[in-house]
Amino acid sequence: MNAKEELLNELEGEMPLCAYLGYAEYSDVSKTILLKKGYTQKDWNNFLAQLDFEYDDGYGTQHLFGTVWISETIWMDRYEYDGSESWQWLTCPEIPEELL
Length: 100
Fold this sequence. Notes:
The chain has two helices and five strands, in the order H-E-E-H-E-E-E. The chain is α+β, with helices and mostly antiparallel strands.
C-alpha cells in the first residue's frame, strides 16, 4: 500500500488542519511526519512527498501511526485491529443539553 495514496483517498478532497504521523517498519517508530497548523502549499507538498512510500498493509504489525486533524472537532486516527490497520474518523460529541 502507498501511504500517500491511502491518505488522499481517505481524505476525499478534504484539506487537513494539521497532522502528526509516524512510520514503524518493525516495532520502533523510525520516521515522524508532521504537518503544522497554518501550513503552506510547499509544506503540504513536502508532507505528501514524505508519505510517498509503500508499506505492507496486510495482517501483522501496524506500520503507520498517528492523527490527522480535519478541524477542531473532527479528526482521523490510525488504528490496528486484529492485525489490519486503517483510518477511523472521529468527532467530538455534542455537549448534552443537561450539561449546558
